[in-house]
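Before we proceed, please read the two lines closing this message. Report back on whether the structure tokens fit the sequence:
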Amino acid sequence: MPVFLAVALAASPTVTQMKWERRVLIVSAPTAGDPALAEQRRILVGWKIHAAARDLTVVEIVGDTVRGASDPAAALRRKYHLPATFTAVLIGKDGGEKLRSAKPFPAAALEATIDAMPMRQAGQR
């Protein structure tokens, strides 16, 4: 592994370390070729600026690889009870699960759910 990549991976916080600072969208798929993963990525690319404004970090678990956090894939799968199929889970800043789906989340569902969260409403005042 190149040194710069190892440093970048080491610098990523765990999902637990993001508590109270970030909302986390966990997107889990068995393989990189999963069609639901491709659809969720497409949705999120178009929603990137909205995600940033809502303090949202996307954590992808594809097979045994994690992007967006330094947690091991197996630990995240256990903690969030992720099956071997596509699953998306929205975690609030309080660390609690807010939404779960076996299908990609539409941008409107993410936006409405996050905007209804008390911490989001308090931040908009």
